[in-house]
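Table S2 (text version). Query chain:
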Amino acid sequence: MRRPVLMMTAPTITFGLLLFLVLGKWPPLLAVDDDVRDDVHRYTAEHPAFVTAMKTLSTIGSAPVYLTAIALVAAWLLYRHRPRQAVFVLVTVTGSALLNAVVKRAVQRARPTVPDPLTTAHGLSFPSGHAQSAAVTYATVLVVFWPVMRSAGRRVAVVLAAAMVLGIGLSRVALAVHYVSDVLAGYALGTAWFLAMVASFTLPSSAADPAAASTSEGG
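Corresponding structure-token output:
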């Protein structure tokens, strides 16, 4: 349990720093946010194929998609007689979404505005819900299925998960519905929350392997 708690330090400090700078409206941060928004949005608007790719990634990272996927994972775990892991999955992902909503309401940061928006998004901006949910969801799925993956499969899964998390975060900046600091804060808060849940649930090493679990529990 101690290792996840110690690992929470870096993302927690990162999120706290970003929160402090956003609330304080620190000029250098706001300048970076505005410059990245304008440059990335300009590039995106000039490349229709890139717009399509970014909209696709943004849809993949939306609540209806990731909540449906997590519900299926939880149902599979229940079918495999792993109720503790199913609860872990549901609490971790849905709890992250609730936490994001609470922080957004507390910070009250408006979304970016651009002259020719490529899409629309409602609600508040800090932290990015897509970035936070992507970090939490992919990490949660990885930790649940990690024990039953071979070493090569683990490497591939980590690379794919990281690519999806980064891609979803990029899509929110490219579509000008979030500042880059929103996305970074979403990653940091999501990582801290995920590690807190891992520490709280203290998952066994056989998280997705009922055969191994029954052996260890029955022995």
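Notes on Table S2: The radius of gyration is 19 Å. The longest helix spans residues 83-107.
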